[in-house]
Write a structure and sequence with these properties.
Length: 200
């Protein structure tokens, strides 16, 4: 993955398409949070494209892809799910599901042709996706006066902390995700300021 404290995923669903000798490979990439969500997307596309010959997929979950699965759905072993999963590795993303729906065009593509087709379709879906980086770490909430806003944001940026929620009322309030390696040092810096409340 990118660093010990970050991982990459896709911001929203995206699609790709690959055609070869009459066969159409429709690729769909989804950000997912768990296996149940992955299965829900798989079931939805099976229903929507019920007339397609194959619905092959791969997914990865967890910052270091601790959970993963790939499935050939009747294609020769290793020609569909594994090449799709290979693109998840190649693009260094996780918490993502890629489904490739195949409409058979009447001409057999052979093992190499199938691997290339599923790989390319999956790559197209990821090329069309917005890839975002998230922080693995601990959450903190900071509350402070407006006068300190620029200074606080600069410090958070220096420590690569991710602002995940913010509100501006009587006081500024920022909810942040701080990388595990930077956490202690950032807290120590913040505690040097009198006018900032830290809620861990």
């Amino acid at each position: 993955m990118s660093t010990a404290d970050t991982y990459r995923t896709i911001a929203s669903p995206s699609e790709g398409l690959y055609k070869e000798k009459g066969s159409k490979f429709l690729a769909f990439a989804f950000p997912i949070q768990d296996e149940a969500q992955a299965q829900s997307y798989i079931d939805t596309l099976r229903s929507r494209y019920h007339d397609a010959r194959h619905h092959c997929y791969a997914y990865a979950l967890g910052p270091n892809r601790e959970k993963y699965r790939y499935y050939d759905d009747g294609e020769p072993s290793g020609t569909a799910g594994k090449p799709i999963y290979g693109q998840i590795l190649s693009y260094d993303v996780t918490d993502v599901l890629i489904i490739v729906v195949r409409y058979f065009g009447g001409t057999l593509l052979g093992t190499g042709g199938l691997i290339q087709a599923y790989k390319t379709a999956a790559a197209n879906a990821l090329q069309n996706a917005q890839i975002v980086e998230h922080t693995i770490g601990r959450k903190i909430v900071l509350r402070f006066e407006y006068a300190s806003l620029d200074r606080v944001k600069y410090l958070l940026k220096t420590f690569r902390a991710e602002i995940i929620a913010q509100s501006y009322d009587t006081y500024c309030q920022l909810e942040c995700m701080v990388g595990l390696q930077a956490y202690s040092e950032l807290i120590a810096k913040l505690k040097q300021w009198d006018k900032i409340e830290i809620i861990e």
